[in-house]
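Progress against Task 2.4 (sequence-to-structure conversion) is shown through the following example record, which the project officer requested during the mid-term review.
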Amino acid sequence: MTIKNEIKSHIVKTGKTMVDVVKEINATRPFDKQTSTQNLSNKLARETLKYKEALEIAHVIGYKIEWKPI
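C-alpha cells generated for the chain above:
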C-alpha cells in the first residue's frame, strides 16, 4: 500500500474527505501558511508530505502517530 492510499484510507474511515481535512488544518494555520486540497493531494501522490503535515492530518482525523519498536 502506498503512503497516499494509506493516509486516504484512514481519512475515509473517519467519514471525512480531503476537503474536510484541509479546512480543519487551515483553521489552525495563519492565512499565509494555508494549503489547498490540490496541494495536499499532490504531496501525497509525490510522497513529499512533511512529517509535521502528517501529524496535522492524523490529529484532524483523530489519530496519533506512534513510534514502536519492531
